Amino acid sequence: MWETLLLLAAAFAAGMLNAAAGGGSFLTLPALVYVGLPPPVANASGTLALLPGYFSGAWAFREDLREVSASQLRIFCLLGVAGGIAGAALLLITPAEAFRMAVPWLLLAATLVFMLAPKLVRKPHQRSSSASPVVQYLGLALVSIYGGYFNGGIGIMLLALLGMSGALQLNTMNGLKNLLSGVLTTVSVVVYMLGDLIAWREAGIMLVAATFGGYVGGRVARRIPAPVLRGAVIVIGLLMTAVMFQSG
User: Fold this and answer.
1) Binning pLDDT at 50, 70 and 90, where does residue 117 land?
2) CB within 10 Å: which end of the chain, N or C, has fewer?
3) How does 148-163 read in b/e, with b if 16+ C-beta sit within 10 Å?
4) Contact 159, 173 (CB under 8 A)
5) Structural domain containing residue 191
6) Whole-angstrom Cα distance, residue 37 to residue 52?
């Protein structure tokens, strides 16, 4: 019962964080490891639990996504699918012990990316140059591989990458970020299923709680100053990183 309550609380809070600012995986992964799941299984199960929030976020920005041409959107999604599959397959062949040792460093990297987000993600009028489509597509493929392997910080990385074009408005980038996160996470989860990496009981508990938390987070986020939200996510990320390093 205690473990179930822990998973419910962590997933609910993670759903709120993802809806408000991002960083939900900082809570789901450590909670699942704490209740005894091997790190690769915890990573895969937590990724499944947070999946619905990506598509609900994309739906919220559906009007802004019309700025992106159909051909460009297809290319983005195809790269997300290919990268997500490659990253998930990489997780399947990574020895559990090697992934366990990498988890604290991955959490630390995701936290640092979140801390640097204001400098990485710039508004259109702040950009002095833009990257070529080839560079952007290559970057998207690499970020998608990372997202398929380890989902932490994927939203910020995608926002930073999409901002390289210099042509998209911030709301459009947010919509694309959510859509691409959902696409690459979906195919990653399918690969996880085929590789038997999903703990269905734990994932089911967290999925329901995270979905409800996402709704509450979307409502509450409007009343909390952005710097406060960002600060809370950074503190949580650093604490969870320290806990994972401490646990070895």
Assistant:
1) low
2) N
3) bbbbbbbbbbbbbbbb
4) yes
5) 2-246
6) 22
* Residue 95 dihedral angles phi and psi, to the nearest 5°: -55, 140
Task: Give the pair of three-digit tokens for residue 83.
Answer: 């990268």
The SS3 assignment for 224 reads coil
Overall pTM > 0.90: no
| CA distances for 34 relative to 14, 17, 50, 93, 231, angstroms | 16, 20, 18, 23, 24
Q: What phi and psi, each to the nearest 5 degrees, are found at residue 21? A: -150, -20
Give the type of residue at 110: A
Question: In sequence order, what are the residues at sequence separation of 6 or more whose Cβ sits closer than 8 angstroms to the Cβ of residue 12?
Answer: 209, 210, 212, 213, 216
pLDDT tens for 143-153 read 999 999 988 77
Contacts of 204 (CB under 8 A, 6+ apart): none
CA 155/CA 83 separation, integer angstroms: 15
Query: Structurally, how many domains does the chain consist of?
Result: 1
CA-CA distance, 60 to 140, in Å (whole number)? 22
How many of the other CB atoms lie within 10 Å of CB of 242? 13
